[in-house]
Amino acid sequence: MALEKARGMSTWRERLSTLVKGPSWMPGSPWTGWDKDKPDIRGCRVYRKVKASSFTHCYVLMHFLAILTLTNLLIAPLSGTPVEVFVYSMVVVVTLGCIGVVYDDPPYTRLVEVMRCSASLLICLFLPPLVTPIILQLLTSLYVLSLTLWLFNPTSMLPHPSTKLDTSSMK
């Protein structure tokens, strides 16, 4: 929408202003344009409630706690430079994204979980020996078990049907 409006402008400065200031901006108007010119972007949203099994909840909780533990183990013996803190924070954010994928259950859930479990397992295997051995063994076992289940029996891994709610009563 903004690109179409930018193409309709006569000068490059107006085109750039349209892209930066938004689609309701016109030459001579305030920074974000007049309220009457702002497009109505509300649309019908399909609401759905995901019904997850107890096993799914336990799986997600165990893996979230495992990644927090793993991140804590990685940060503790190291100096904690800004780059390391950023990387470990991104590990937690990616795990949260993977949790969303598990609950949404798209066709690529298996691939995402195999990649995440493999990466976490590699981190466990290459951790320095300063890390507590029993915790490291538990984390490694969890990732090996999860990886094995996702590779060989993914259909029974997280059975949960999703249901769509009626949106007519929610308007």
UniProtKB/TrEMBL annotation:
It is found in: Endoplasmic reticulum membrane. Its cofactor is Fe cation. One of its GO terms (cellular component) is endoplasmic reticulum membrane. The chain crosses the membrane at residues 58-79, 85-103, 134-152. Residues 57-124 form the Alkylglycerol monooxygenase C-terminal domain. Keywords: Endoplasmic reticulum, Iron, Membrane, Oxidoreductase, Transmembrane, Transmembrane helix. GO terms for molecular function: glyceryl-ether monooxygenase activity. GO terms for biological process: membrane lipid metabolic process. It is a multi-pass membrane protein. This is Alkylglycerol monooxygenase C-terminal domain-containing protein. It comes from Cherax quadricarinatus (Australian red claw crayfish).
